[in-house]
Amino acid sequence: MEQLERLPLPLLLWFRENARTLPWRSDPAPYHVWVSEIMLQQTRVAAVLGYYTRFLEVLPTVEDLARCSEDRLMKLWQGLGYYSRARNLQKAARQVMDEFGGKFPSHYEDIRSLAGVGDYTAGAIASIAFGQPIPAVDGNVLRVVSRFTGDGRDVTRTQVKEEIRTALEKVIPKDVPGDFNQAMMDLGATVCLPNGAPLCESCPVSEFCQGYLEGRARDLPVKPPKKERKMEERIVYIILRNGRVALRRRPERGLLAGLWEYPNELSPWPCPVKGRTEFVGVGKHIFTHKEWRMTAYTVAAEGEALPPGWVWADREEWEKTYALPSAFACFVHVMERKWEETKQGRG
Question: Would you state the CATH architecture of domain 2-219?
Fold first, then answer.
C-alpha cells in the first residue's frame, strides 16, 4: 500500500480544476453534508440534486427535520428509494436535538453514533464539514484504491476494507482532508468508472496506477458474483371513483415499510373491490434482491366502501400527501389520463 503515497498530490491538482459543482460543496455546513451523503447512498448525484434542494427548502434545519411528520418526510423522499434512510435521518435528527442540544456533533465518534451513519458517512462529514483527517471509504474509493495499487483481493471483505482505510489514514492530507475525500469520490464517479472501461487516458494518476500499467484495470476491483434476484409476478389494481384513487399503507416492517401503494399482491389475486375492470399495462421494478413484474388493471369502483385501512385520495392528496414508492412510477400515465378524463367530464 506504499503506492498510495503517490496519490494525493496529482489527485488534488486535478480536483482543483475538475471538481464537480455541487450545492453542498458551496455551503458545507454539517447538516447539508449529512443530508447529501445520506441521499447519495446507492443513488447517483444527478438524481439527488433536485431532491436535495427541495428537502432543504422545506426542512432547512436539524430541528425542522426532527419535528417533521413521517408522512411529510416520506413525501419529500418519494422517488429516492431506500426509505429506511429517511427514517434513520429523522431518528438521527432527534438524537442531535436530545443528546447534543440541537448542535450537530463535531467529533467523529459522536457523528458515527447517529442512526444510519456508518464509517463512510461519518468520515465524509468529519472531513468535509469539520476538517478532520479521516478517510471516507465507499465503493468508489475501494475501486480507485484497488486499481491504483493493483490489489486483487475481494473488496467486499471486512478485513480488506479495513486495511484500505488504514492505508488511506496514512496519506490523507492533514490540511485538506475534505478535498482529498471529495477528489476520490469524483475520480471514482467520473473517471475510474464501475461496470465498464475506466477512462484511464483522462486519469490524473494513471502513470502511477498499477492496474493501468499492468493492463488489469478493467478486472479490478474483485467482488463475488451477485446473487440472482427473486422474481415476483404481481397484480396491481388502480381503483378509481369520482376522480379519486384507492391507496393502502404497507406494513410497518419489511420492504417499502409504511409507504402508500396501489393495492397489489402476488398473482393471481382477485380485486377485493367490486367494479368494472380493465387491463392497462405491465411494468417492472428492480429492488436490490428482488424484481417485481406487475400487471395492472383499473377498476371503476361501484361504491365508496373500501377494505379497512384503505383511503380514497384525490389528485392533490395523491401529489402532495401520500408517498408512493417509485416501484409504481410506471403507472403514473394511467393516473394522468384518468384525471384528465375526469376533468373533461368523461371519467
Answer: Orthogonal Bundle (1.10)
Q: Which of 37, 228, 291, 319 is catalytic?
A: 37
| Of 255, 66, 240, 222, residue with least CA distance to 152 | 222
Kindly report the pTM of this predicted structure: 0.89
Question: What are the mean pLDDT values of the chain's consecutive 10-residue runs (347 residues total)?
Answer: 91 97 95 97 90 97 97 93 93 98 97 97 98 96 97 96 97 97 96 90 96 95 91 97 94 90 97 96 93 96 96 93 92 84 62
Q: What share of the chain is helix, strand, coil (3-state, %, to 5)?
A: 50, 15, 35
- Rounded to an integer, what distance in angstroms lies between the CA atom of residue 315 and that of residue 321? 10
Say which residue the cell 428492480 belongs to: 286
Q: Quick one: how far is CA 251 from the chain centroid?
A: 21
207 in active site? no
Question: What is the homologous superfamily of the domain 230-343 according to CATH?
Answer: Nucleoside Triphosphate Pyrophosphohydrolase (3.90.79.10)
Triad 144, 146, 152: Cα angle to 5°: 155
Domain positions in the chain: 2-219, 230-343
Residue whose entry in the numeric block shows the C-alpha cell 451477485: 226
